[in-house]
Amino acid sequence: MTDNASLDFAQLGPLMKLAQSLDLAAVAELAERVDLGELIGLVSRMDEGTLAAMKKMMDSASNGKAEVPPIESDFYDIRDILTDEERRVMQQLYDFMAGEVAPIINDYWMRDETPVEVLREGMRRLDVPTLIYGEDIHARAPHAAVLEGIATMEIARVDPSSATFFGVHGGLVMQSFMQCASDEQKAEWFPRLRHFDVIGAFALAEPKVGSGVAGGLTTTCRRDGDDWVLNGQKKWSGNATFADLVIVWARDEDDASVRGFIVRAKENPGYAVEKITGKTALRVVENGLITLTDCRVPESDRLPGCTAFRDVANVLRVTRAGVAWIAVGCAMGAYEHALAYAQTRRQFGRSIGSFQLVQDKLVQMLGNITAMQTMCLKLSRLQDEGRLTDEQASLAKVFTASRCRETVALARELLGGNGILLDHHVARFFADAEAIYSYEGTHEINTLIVGRAITGTGAFV
Ligand SMILES: Cc1cc2nc3c(=O)[nH]c(=O)nc-3n(C[C@H](O)[C@H](O)[C@H](O)COP(=O)(O)OP(=O)(O)OC[C@H]3O[C@@H](n4cnc5c(N)ncnc54)[C@H](O)[C@@H]3O)c2cc1C
């Protein structure tokens, strides 16, 4: 079977340029054979009807080789909100992902591994966290949420797992510091986190408690002199297998309040982590099963800004919005590959993009993506204005994860058999969407949060 429709990220741009350059080459060749001056004179004397008839004839003769529009998944130009400098950084971020991560990512996906050093070096070089958080350790940049959202989208557009790596480190962990850490803790860790000198993980979910963490944490902490002693297990913590520090949330044995700790993972003998294997989604994210056995943490590493679960919820509200942007990027990546495939794959002597049923799928995908992008942009603006509510973040998570799931499924269908091959990338987006659908609050839990807000009646049981 021929496989001439196989495309990768690096080929998308050149393909478009090649398509556009075909006519120029033809013109150059023609110019050697005919008197161009005479030809131009002839054309300039033609009436409009003759010109239109000639154009139709040439389009038909080119048999689908008419100029191919560029692949664009930002149909309403949401990036126009960025300054020129911010736009340049976002483009560099995408170029880094497309140029350095895309060529290796399927291999890492197969091996259940994160390309830690590649991501660390690339993100450090582009200094994206400084763009979002600024140099001030007390506050984020004025429109940090919009920048973080679009950066997350650009990363996820190439690889949702890499966006999750960034979301855990730059979102869950740095946001925990921003909201719950003391000035001394921020001064010690923030610059190193910002420059990826250390990598963070966030440990909230447990083997037996996922959706019910608000009232059901079983990991305990107990004050013992100048230390705290932590016991329990944490499941799913992204980046945990290689993290230098892990933010661990535990219930105080004394007063049942929820407390947060900075666990220095690489030097604490009470901390052990095992990689969760056998995943079928976001395989590039290394999720850990953490076991804390009389894990001693000094009082100076307790996060003083957390005294109850509502403090953790404040962190999650912000990061839930980030996950909505991952869903946007995931859908965009799948769409872009599907569109490129539709332009190059030929059946029945024509490109499949010329079939009505195929165009219907592409338009449904683009409609979903545009609705997701515009919703997330408004969401991030609300966040930057300090007006974002839990319900608004939950609605965005529910809506974008559902539309993402639908979009990647359409993309997978469009590629036919090749839609289940990693080589064509869409299969990876298709699989990864399943985890996006369930993490940072499942579809059901976020639906219940919105349902309670709009009806005034909680339907949680
Ligand atoms: C790839 C991945 C990465 C993750 N990364 C992290 C991380 O870095 N740190 C971290 O702490 N956690 C992480 N998680 C955990 C994630 O947040 C949980 O998986 C999620 O909150 C759901 O919990 P659960 O898997 O235990 O499902 P459960 O809570 O057991 O839910 C099972 C099903 O029951 C439904 N359900 C539960 N309660 C109700 C109810 N009251 N009404 C109706 N339906 C209900 C759920 O919606 C779901 O469909 C990650 C998970 C995944 C898959």
Q: Can you describe this structure?
A:
By secondary structure, the chain is α+β, with helices and mostly antiparallel strands. Among the domains are: 9-58, no CATH class; 313-455, Butyryl-CoA Dehydrogenase, subunit A, domain 3 (Up-down Bundle), CATH 1.20.140.10. Helix content is 56%, strand content 13%. Strands 1, 2, 3, 4, 5, 6, 7 and 8 form an 8-stranded mixed sheet that branches. It has a two-stranded antiparallel ribbon with strand order 9-10. A hairpin with a 2-residue loop joins strand 9 (346-347) and strand 10. The longest helix has 36 residues, at 309-344. The radius of gyration is 26 Å and the shape is elongated. The protein starts with 8 loop residues before the first helix and ends in a 6-residue tail after the last helix.
